[in-house]
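Let's study my pick:
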Amino acid sequence: MVKKVSEILQGIAAIWLVFVAFTIFAEVTFRNFGLFLGADQIVQNSVPAIVFLQVPFAIVSGTMLRTTLIYEFCSKNSKIIINVLSFLIGMMLFIGIAVGGWTDMIKGWEIREYQGIGAIEFPVYIVRTVIIFAAIIIVYIYASLIIDQFKKKNN
C-alpha cells in the first residue's frame, strides 16, 4: 500500500510539473503582449509542493540520497542499526515539519491565504496542506521501513 500511495503522489507531482512548465512557456511566450503575468507566483509556490510529493517515492524506491562509504563495510546487524537510526532521524524531521506547519496550514484555510498581486493570486493554503499531508505520509513510510528492518533482523 505504501508503494502504491507513493506512486500516486509521484504521478500528481509529474502532472503538476507539466502544468508549471506550460505556465512558464505561456509567460515567456505572451509576456510581450501583456496577456499573461504571474507565473513567478505559480512556480515559487509549486516547487515545494512538487518536491514534497516526490519524496515519498524516493524513500520507498530506495533512491533517497545516501552515502555508502562506510555502510558497505558494515556487518548485517550494523547496517540494520544504521538504517533504523537514519529512518528515526527522517521521522523526527518530518514530524517536526508536520507539527511546525500545522497551525499555519489551518490558519491558511481559515483566511484563504493567497500570494500574488495582479493577474494571478496563488492559493498558498493548498501548498501548505500538500506539504503537511506529504510529511505525515513520509513519517508513516519511515515507520514501516523501521518495522521492515526489525523483520530482517529476525530472519
User: Anything to note?
Assistant: DSSP finds four helices and two strands in the chain.
